[in-house]
Amino acid sequence: MTKSHFYAYISKLRWLQRWGMKRNVISENVMEHSWEVATIAHVLALAKNRYFGGNVDVNAVVVAALYHDCSEVITGDMPSPIKYHSPEITKAYKAIEHQADHELLNLLPEDLKADFRPVLVEAEISAEYHSLIKSADTICAYLKCKAEVQAGNPEFRKAEEDVHKRLERDDCPEVKYFLETFAPSYGLTLDELLR
Hints:
The protein is mostly helical and 195 residues long. The chain has one domain: Hypothetical protein af1432 (Orthogonal Bundle). It contains 11 helices and no strands.
């Protein structure tokens, strides 16, 4: 049996800190971020199916969300203001991410590559699933910004406003559902949650 470094390699995501160009009160690594995106993508997909006439494979969305930032183990976490600074930078960075996706895919045993391709290679993820994952990712960014501001960190105030505006423009009803149903509790303390 062939040995593979795939999981050992992506386990290094725990050492990759997010929000690198901002002073953080609450640290966040890519591995924990990926778990949060997956859990929120899960409920977005469920809500889409249950309340908004969707017919998505919830488990496929969750698995793709778990792997959505794996390429960052190669590329690092590029801050959004830089990643989207200009069309040229965005195009170049997307090409690097695409190459990183394929390099990770090539670490897998040959007979597993076809199974991983639709969840690991961003270009292979269906547009509908990608949209749900992107929405979950944006919700996570919003919740992170809110938590930082609530912790007294003004560094995230403008980012919170900007990400909130993006969420308001998101036309997916499941996003509004999450923001109304689940997001308000994020500002509560543990004691308040337990009451």
